[in-house]
Task: structure prediction
Amino acid sequence: MGKQLGKLFRYDEINTGNLCETLENYLAHDCNAKKTAETMFLHRNTMNYRLKNNYVELSEEQVLEIYKAAY
Result:
């Protein structure tokens, strides 16, 4: 799991991205994409795109592990 998160951090660093922020908000909203999109002022499709295309390397179990560790 550390490798996947490391890739996420490096991507954000290099591209001045916000994938880590998106993942943090997603976890804070109990993995609810709709609530996360509303909170981040994103269109629902943008949120779904970020989740599907950028976190594909993280399994549901890994996301739950991150969630449990964070909260």
Remarks:
- The helical segments are 2-15, 19-28, 33-39, 44-54, 60-70.
- The mean pLDDT is 78.
